[in-house]
Every structure is written in structure tokens, then in C-alpha cells.
Amino acid sequence: MILQAIHWNFDPEIFEIWGHGVRWYGLMFAFAFFFGYIIMKKYFTHDKLKEELLEKLSIYVFLGTLIGARLGHTLFYQPEYYLSRPHEILFVWEGGLASHGAAVGILLALWLYARKINVPYLWILDRVVIVVALGGFFIRMGNFFNSEIYGIETSLPWGVIFERKGETVPRHPTQIYEALSYLLIFIGLHFHFLKIRAKQLNGQIFGIFLVLLFSARFFIEFIKQDQVGFEATMKLNMGQWLSLPFIAIGIGLIFWVQKNKKELQEHSKS
Length: 270
Known about the structure:
Keywords: Cell membrane, Glycosyltransferase, Lipoprotein, Membrane, Transferase, Transmembrane, Transmembrane helix
InterPro entries: Lgt (IPR001640)
Oligomer: single chain
Family: Belongs to the Lgt family.
Strand content: 5-15%
Subcellular location: Cell membrane
Order of helices and strands: EEEHHHHHEHHHH
Transmembrane segments: 22-39, 59-77, 97-114, 121-139, 176-194, 201-220, 240-257
């Protein structure tokens, strides 16, 4: 059975410059923002907004993602370690980023951005979360290159032996499962957005995004290896518990938009 598995021993470092390695994870992170910028530019052009507003948005999202993801990891997964060594929270290059923390960071950053340029909060959320889903695809591919955040043992033919981590048995490539889920969510949301944006149902795309993305995350967590020791005693791991509020908010938002559809459309015309 092991002979049928995929042996993965990929070097996460592409090359080295002046003693510092350039890693595939960093390249995937850059791809997330590069392609996200291109797509958002199309959205902004359609809405007749200046490109300088998009440049500001990129800065807000980048900082929200980085700060939120880092704080999310340190506070949700290893609080005792980092609270006793708070200076190490700044050591982002050592790894440790949590997607749920990134989600909170992006939401706060977009709230500040919406206030700054005076646009409806749900209006900007509906656009940004589409490219966030695409960004999730690239980030999880980066995790695959790093041989991290993989799943439990499997006998399936596409199981992966992460040799660089010392594994000797096939495991679920949960990074790939998540990456493909996020890519499909991006494609679906993008075309749904093109279909409904004239209806001005601010909040619908955001609600659908929350339900789809965090539901995918919730179910994939069942076959994902525990990230920290204390999860071994939990029926639902930390990632699942953190996903549930986002799913609930998404469901509530979808129902709220449907209930107030006429009011939202009339308000957009006034």
C-alpha cells in the first residue's frame, strides 16, 4: 500500500539570497495578493472607483491578514508559550499563522477601510472575500510545499508520505483538499457576484462565503492531524470550534439579506 502512495520530499526553499532563503510559501503568499489585486482592480473599474483606493485597500488587507494570522496562532494555539515570550510574537519568519485569526484581522481592517473611504462595510466585504477565497487556495498550496498541516493516516491511493517531516506512512493531503475547496468557492462566488451585483444585495456574497469556506474547513478538520497537543482530548478541535461562529454568522446574514431584499435594493437607488 505504501508503494501506491505519493512520496513527498520537496525542498520548501527555492533559492537563497544573501543568506536568506526564498521559500515557496512566501511565493504563494505573494501570488495570493498579486492575483487578488488584479481581480479587485476589475471590480473597482466596473464600479468607477479610483485605483489609488485599491492600493490603500491592499495595504489594509495585507496588514490585517499578517497581524491577525500571527496573533490568532499565538493566542488560540500556543498562548502559554507566547504570553511568556511576547517578543517572539514578532518572529513571523519562524512560522505560525492561523487562518481564523487572519479572518478576524481582515474583517477589522476592512471595517477601518470602509470608514476611511466612506463606503458600506458589507459592500466592500462582498468583493474582498471573493479574492480571499482565492488567496486561501495559494496559502494552502504553500502549506503543501512546506509539508505542514497534513492529515491522519490513510490507505487511499493519493495518500502522501511527507518524508521531510519524518513520516513513513501515507497521510491525507488535507492542504490539497482545502486548496481545491477554496478554489471552487472562489470560482462559484466570482460568477455569482457577476450575476447579482446589479441587484445591490450587500452582504449576500459575504454570507455565502462564510458558510461555504468555514464549512469546508470544519469537515476537513476531521481528517486533519492535531496541530497542538491539547487538541487530542477534544471532540472538536480548535479549528472546528473557531469555524462554528463564522458559519452561524454567515447563515444569519443570508437570511437577513433575503428578508430585507427590497429595502436593500431601494436604499442602493436612493
